[in-house]
Amino acid sequence: MAYTVRQFTEVDAQALADITLAAIRAVGARHYSSEQVDAWAARHPGPRRFLERARGGSHILVAADHDDLAVAYSLLEPDGHLDMLFCHPDHTRRGLADDLLGFSERHARREGITRLYTEASELARPVFERAGYALQHRREFEIDGIAIHNYAMEKPLA
Questions:
Q1: SS3 call for 40
Q2: Is the pLDDT of residue 28 over 80?
Q3: Contact in structure between 68 and 8 (CB atoms under 8 Å)
Q4: pLDDT value for 44
Q5: Among 102, 157, 108, 110, which residue's Cα sits nearest to residue 127?
Q6: In sequence order, which residues have a C-beta less than 8 Å from that of residue 62 and are 6 or more positions away?
Q7: Pair 91, 108: CB distance under 8 Å
Q8: How far apart, in whole angstroms, are the C-alpha atoms of residue 45 and residue 21?
Q9: Mean pLDDT rounded to a whole number for the chain
Q10: 65-92, pLDDT tens digit by residue?
């Protein structure tokens, strides 16, 4: 299947919220307990949040299928924080995350951003490592009293 990477539009907002929840539920369950997945899913962003983030200057890229329906996305904040990278479970392992990271990096360079950084889940960590991000440390934290972790990672662009 051929995919295209394009800019986020307002009509994508609900699809991105759905992709996030589907990925957390299906893919997150491979590396986190059901309690951790439930806590993570409970705080996923709804469609309004994507509209707010886009209006606030975040750069949101969408990978779309042949019908131009969103199947994956990345969200890069103006300071170089790659806050979100999610792919719908039906479209994983097709290079979409790699493509989105590459396009996000090119955008960051055009904007003069000198460092990208993220907090990667267990599943996303290898994707970021392939893209040249270095592990800074494992982050232990809680969501609604449930212990969970991810990895602080960064990539200098200078």
A1: helix
A2: no
A3: no
A4: 84
A5: 102
A6: 5, 6, 7, 8, 9, 12, 16, 70, 72, 73
A7: no
A8: 9
A9: 94
A10: 999 999 999 999 999 999 999 999 989 8
